[in-house]
Amino acid sequence: MMVTDLKTSFSSYLNQTSSAAALAVFRMMFGVLMMISMLRFWYKGWIFQLYIEPKHHFTFYGFEWIKPLGPYTYLLFIVAILSALLICIGLFYRGASMLFFLSFTYIELMDKTTYLNHYYFISLLSFLLIFLPANAYFSVDAWRKPSINSDKIPSWCTDSIRLLVVILYFYAGLAKLNSDWLFHALPMKIWLPAKNDIPLIGGLFNELWVAYLFSWIACLYDLSIAFLLLYKPTRKLAFLSVVTFHLLTSLLFPIGMFPYIMIGTAMIFFSTGFHHALIGKIAAILTISHSFLTPVRTYSFSKFQQNLATGGLLIFFSFQLLLPFRYLLYPGELFWTEEGYRFSWRVMLMEKMGAASFIVKDELGKTIEVDNKEFLTPQQEKMMATQPDMMLQYAHILKEHYEIAGFKNPEIYADTYVSLNGRIGKALIDPTVDLSKEKESFRPKYWILPFQDEIKGL
Amino acid sequence: MKNNKVLILFLLLAAMSSCVDSTEKITQPDVSNDRKEMLTFWVEELILPSYAEFDKDLQAMVISAEEFTTNPTEASLSAFRTSWTEAYISWQNVEMYEVGPAEKYTLRSFYNIYPADVAGIQNNINSGTANLNLPSAYAQQGFPALDFLLNGVAAQDENILAFYQDSEKGAQRLSYVNVLVSRMNTLLDQVISDWKGTAKADFISRTGLDIGSSTASLVNAYVLYYERHVRSGKFGIPSGATIASAGTPNPDKVEAYYKKDISGKLAKTAQLAFSNFFNGIANGKQGPSLKSYLNSIDAKDPSTGKLLSEYINEQFSIIENLVEALSDDYYYQIETDNDAMVKVYQEMQKAVRILKVDMTSAMSITITYTDNDGD
């Protein structure tokens, strides 16, 4: 009985339609912000610095074949920028969104040193966009092919973007439900005093209660904001707090484009009226006829397309809901081992710093200490020094190098020292384990030493 | 719910904009987290007075060098040695400040790179036209080169004197001594006058913690100095404790190798200066320091509740006790009981990690130099 109820209500939901304007505005906003992001990345010299200059790269498990393309890496960025432009104006939309997803995701998978949750978010958004008719309204495609021009689309299209935002915020909030964050104000307590020389408000950051207040507000904000955006009576004030919150974090932390992307994305929750007014303004500037804006047509998928898309989305979102909890399958403290840490909306959650030196021994008794900067950039070394999977990859890079350099069956040992949220540092990796013999897998890494403390919570 | 939330946010913002300097800052030295105060104390009470003190000792050395080079006698040699020793000890109080002007002129590279390059020194004497600015000439000048020239050119003092009284080459040799001493003097003058010029105000004004800020630059210089020049330079390399030296002791790489009996005094002075800087101890005064800063931001292990500054000071006293028990002559120490040297290296390595990882993490400072253990 219940099941059939659910089924009928789901299929009637699938048949619901709503204005196409929100998704069209989102498409344009997304395209513009992506172009700015990529150009900014280029302008700052990061393409060279992060993808061309380093001698070695930390690839993702299963995606080892995704590597920078030397000077052609620039081409990859050009492809991403141009496809973002096409997405923005809605020309050759389906192809452009596919191309953007592929090029952007390729870039993000080239080196896990640069992993950021918001890049992952962008990859997921662009993946969704491939299947959504974001070009059905107010796009060049619709201009060229009036037969697709529609002012109504199935509601689930816009809602799937909203759902992804709900997941992002809510899971980011869940991740903050731990004893360090809530009851020790860590890492906020460490990060805020570093900004105590900001004019006017700097002095506040010396106060412990401010660190607690920030921690609790951030947690409550993440847990509730998406729902407050969904609920019409609270929407305006919720958006105002989105703007305040993200601008404040951008003032305090070096997080680049993330705040602007989140502020832009939050507009997807706005009412039809808002999006129509915005499109009306753009149309007026471009002197576009009123009839183009009012096609009075509903975009419809074929039955087959609809089933495929909704079935795919169900799988996609179930995966999204489960993936962040994969850490439960691993023993030990997640923040310490980082097994299952990425791709889980754990944003700015801990202060972790480390030092790692590697020792190479060979059969003939030759022993040397590796000079990390011969192999890694300072940024790579810094990230490697706290993350066991990167240490393992580095050990294999070293093994290969020293074999060629004439070491006979080199063994690689890691002498590590890591501090997490202010705890006095200790070894992260068992220094007696020859890492060159260990292989990457999804199995727990037995050579990670225990944390010897407990952070309670999720 | 919504109203409360927004209310909190607005109250927060309102509080931020209204709460300026109305509350008076408590000026107890051990609770201040005002980085401007700390930077000011560092420059005015630690860096500049240490340079002034060192300058005094260097001037004494300049004078006795002049006397020696105009009239190399047993008495002038002995006076020169004494003033050289005093200046070398005093140098240990400023070597760590390789930031601002000293960094600009790379003072340490021209003052204390050892072991001395004896062949290079002899070449320079013979050619008379050495370019001492080149990196290849670092070990041909400064205190280590003078160590060789004052104590190492011959075994007996009379032979050392003969080396300078030599009718053919004596003048050239004395002239090289003069070149080295006046070069040290010039470099120090530049550093001190830069500090007294715009460098001081500039240093105090960069109060952030990002790369390029004064606190971050100084902490980087401070930890680098300890890691490379105290831990490795004074202990690790000569004792063979670094992996790079593969367990083989190199007693000829100790600091002041030719004078021998002052290497312990130099290391003790350096260690004391290093921990005094951490604790903000300057000529009996105590002021805002890394310790007081860490305490004021409540840097402590959340598991044990122990202050990070306590961990650091405990490690410093372990090291001080070990160093205290060593001979003043590290060459002799390595030859007779090298394990004691190795032990110091190991404890210093622990201190390096606490400073480099725990302290910088607690302060939100990025270490921008990368480890380099080569020798």
From TrEMBL, chain A:
It comes from the Bacteria. Residues 15-274 form the HTTM-like domain. It comes from Algoriphagus aquimarinus. SMART domains: HTTM. Keywords: Disulfide bond, Lyase, Membrane, Transmembrane, Transmembrane helix. InterPro entries: HTTM-like, HTTM_dom, VKG_COase, VKGC_lumenal_dom. Its main location: membrane. It is found in: Endomembrane system. The keyword Endoplasmic reticulum does not apply. This is Vitamin K-dependent gamma-carboxylase. GO terms for cellular component: endomembrane system. GO terms for molecular function: gamma-glutamyl carboxylase activity; vitamin binding. The lineage of its organism: Bacteria, Pseudomonadati, Bacteroidota, Cytophagia, Cytophagales. It is a multi-pass membrane protein. The chain crosses the membrane at residues 20-43, 74-107, 119-140, 161-179, 209-230, 237-262, 274-296, 308-329.
Automatic annotation (TrEMBL), chain B:
Residues 1-22 form the signal peptide. Residues 47-344 form the Imelysin-like domain. Gene3D superfamilies: M75 peptidase, HXXE motif. CDD domains: Imelysin-like_IPPA. Coiled coil: none annotated. It is found in: Cell envelope. It holds the Pfam family Peptidase_M75. PROSITE patterns: PROKAR_LIPOPROTEIN. InterPro entries: Imelysin-like, Imelysin-like_IPPA, Imelysin_sf. GO terms for cellular component: cell envelope. Keywords: Signal. This is Imelysin.
